[in-house]
Structures are given as C-alpha cells and as structure tokens.
Amino acid sequence: MKIKRLEMVGFKSFVDRTVVNFDHDVMAIVGPNGCGKSNIVDAIRWCMGEQSARHLRGQKMEDVIFSGSESRAGHDFAEVTLTFENDSGDVPIEYKDYPEIAVTRRLHRSGDSDYLINKTQVRLKDVTDLFLGTGAGTKAYSIVEQGKIGLIVSAKPEDRRLLIEEAAGITKYKSRKKQAERKMELTQQNLLRVGDIVAEIERNLGSLKRQAAKAERYLAYRTELEDLQLYEASHRYLETYGWIALESREVEEHTLASDQARVDLVAEEGQFEGLRQVAHEAEQQLELAHNAHFAAENDVRAEEAAIDRAKDKLATLETRAKQATVEADEIAEQVQKLSHEKELVVADLALLEEAEAGQAATVAEKEERLASVVAEHEAAESLLRELRQGAAQAQAQIASAQAKLAGFERRQGEMHQRHEKLAAEEVELHELVAEHTIRATHLRTRRATCAKARRRASRSRSASRRGSPRCAPTSRPATWPSTPPRRSSRRSARACRRFSRCTRASMASAPASRRCSRRRTTRSPAWSPTASRPRTSTSQRSRVSSATGCRTSW
User: For residues 36 and 45, is the Cβ–Cβ distance under 8 A?
Assistant: First the structure.
C-alpha cells in the first residue's frame, strides 16, 4: 500500500480544503519554521487512528480543529482523508477488489468522531485491522520522526522485536491470535458459568418437579372449580329468571293500578280546579266587600269629623250667645240649621249602618279570625321587640359598667402610684428640711462665733495700734483683753478659717439654687461681721483681713 493523496479540511492550520498528491517515490516538504510542515505528518498519524493528543503535539483532541485567527473564525470540525493504492493485496478480503482505499476521520467540536473507509462508516477497530501487517499505522515503522532512530537503537529487545515483527508482516496474525485466545478465555468463562447454572438447576430440579405436580393438581382443581361454578351459576340463573318473571307480573299489576290512580288523579285535579275557581271568585267578592267596607268607614269617619266640627261650632255659638245677647237670634237660626243638618246626617248614617250590617254578616267570622291572628302576631312581635330591647339595654349597661369599672381600676392604680410617689417625695422633703435646718443652725452658730472672734480681733488690733504694750501705762483700760493680742488674733484667724471651710463644704453639698441663695445671704449686711464693729478705712480693713487670714469677701 502506497500513499496516493492526502486531503485536509479544518485540521490545525489547514482551514481550507488542502490536497497533497504523492506522485513521486521521494517527496520533500520545505518551508520556514511554523508554516505547518509537521502538521502534515500529524494529519497522517491522526487519520490512521492515533488516540493520544500528546503525540499530536496538543493537550486535548479538540486542539486539532482550527480555532480561528484575527481574520477568520474557527472551524466546526476537522476532517482528514488518506488515499492508498491497493496494489499489494495485503488488505482484508472485503477491500481487495478496490483499486484505491480512502480512509477518512472526522472530529466535531462537540466531541463526536467518525471513521470511514471508502465513504462507509466503520469502527476504529476496522481501521486498525486494515493497517495490520502493512507497515503503516500509528506505532509502525512507516513514520520515523525526529529522534526515532536513536530510540530504536537504544530500545529494549522486546520493543525492537515489535518493529521486526511489523516488518515481517506477522503482527496481524499475532493480533488475531490474541483475539482468538481472548475469545477462548471468554468462552471458557461462559462454559464455567453455564456449568454453575446447570448444577444450580439440577439442585432445583426436585423442587421444580414438586412444583410442577402442584401446578398440575391446581389446574385439575381449577377445572373442577370452574365446572362447579358454572353449575351453580346456571341454577342461580334459573332462579333469577323465575324471580324476574314473577316481579315482571307484579310490575304489570302495579302499572295498571298506577294508570288507574293517574286517571282518578286527573279527575280529582279537575274538581280541585273548579273549587279553586270558586274560591278565587269568593276571594274577589271578599276583596270587593273589603273595599266597600273601607269606603264606608272612610265616609263614617268623615261624617264623624263633620259632627265633631258641628259640635265645636255649636259650643262656640253657645258661648257667644251667653256673652252677647245681641246675636242670640242669629245663633238660634244657625242652631236650627245645624240641628236639621244633624238629623239628615243621622238619617244617612242609619242607612249606611243598615247596609254595612248586611255586608258585615258575611265577613264577621273571617274578620274575627284575622283579627285574632293579627292580634296574636302583634303581641308576639311586641313581646319579641321588648325582649330584644331589654337584651340590648342590658348588654349596653353591662358594657358601660365594665368600661366604668376598668376606668375606676385604672384610676385607682394611678392614684395609688401617685400616692406612693407623693409619700416618697414627702419623706425626702422632710429629710431635706431637717438636714437644712441642722445646717442652718450650725452655720448661724459658726457665724456668730466668727463674728465675735473678728470683733475681738479688731478691738485688739485697734488697741495695739493706739499703743504698744511696752509703752503702755501701768494701769490697763477696762476694755483691753486679758490675753496678749497676738494670741487673740491667732484664735480669731483659726475660727475664721474653720468658718470658711464649713461654708465651702455646705455650699458644695447643697444644690446650685440653694448655693446661690446662701451666697447672697452671706453677702447680705445682716450677716456681715462688720455691721457691729466701728467704721474703719479701706487700708485698715485690708490689714485686718490679712492679719486674720480669712479669705472671705465682704
């Protein structure tokens, strides 16, 4: 087998249909790097059934499809067709009559792959069997790539033997031998499995025989049961047929009776219709009598109203007759006229009453019944209305009482909380008043003490300025202090410092408003210690303040 032609579509860099004809025994493909020289060898290897993407210089099998460039879109599939000349006859029997053998491989981007020999879809195994023993194939010596000679020289004897067997043409027979041995092994395993199945069936044969005997007995019993059921069904059918005949006769009798009853019913309905017409005429007459009665009642009411008006007029005329004797004659004439009219009205009323009495005789009983029913109905309605009103009033009173009770309870709780809060505030106020009372008493005492000390200090200081003790006469005035003035000034300074400390502590513990009021009280003339001492100059007051050491402002 010799390669005659190679056709490529969408394989790697051959996006368009490319045909390479091998017309000479030796051909060379020359070109720069990257022009696709190795892609031709990859196409031949791929078409002959190569399954490893690494041997085709790719990561996965979809890499052999043209993926596109800047100017062209990617291809949907890759197809390579390799045409051989069939001149040696070393091919399978089914292809010996063909002068050329075209092997085609097609791969879609979805992953579907097709193999064709002479445009007939085949399996990969058929393609592999075609190239066995011919020297062509993915692993044969027909394709010697770069570095393949060194691998053959340095290969193991087993690998080198494969190449020799391929060249000798016995690879095909060895593969067939392996397939036959594999089939024999599979057949042997199938035989062992069949033997196991036969042994299992022989073990189950006794139970199967017993089951077959049971099945035969079951069939016999079922046949007998079916006969008995048919016999019973026939008896039931005969019995049912007799009952049906009897029931049919009774049905016929009842049908005749129902027809006769229907005829009687029609006659009764005719009579009832006549009675209904009579009743309808009586109702119409009754309605006419009611209308006449209502008209007579209206006339009577009108006459009664006229009589009432006449009576009113008569009373008025009598009153006027008593008041004015001048109009007595006229009133008498009017009275006579009215009396004559009254007689006429009474005569007409008597005639109407006689006519009404004749009609009332026929309607009295029905009116009495109707009046009794209406009275009972009105009494029941009035009682029901009163009960409903009583229930509604009771529910309203209950709701209002519950609302008032809830309001009283809520107000009681609020008053209780308010009372507790006021009691707590009252206790706090009492405690605060007692505390401030104690503080005020203490402050008054301290202020009086400090005022006395200052007065003593001022008197001693004024006496010391008027004359020194060393130049003083032998007889002291009665107003001098009994102790030296230095010791008296020290005691007054200590008392003033204690007073200032107490004042600052009380002001720090009291609120701001009380502190301000206390500050204002401290600054008032009533509490000033200088109110009881003699007036001095500003320089003397500053000297006294510096001598006593009191840092208060007056």
Answer: no
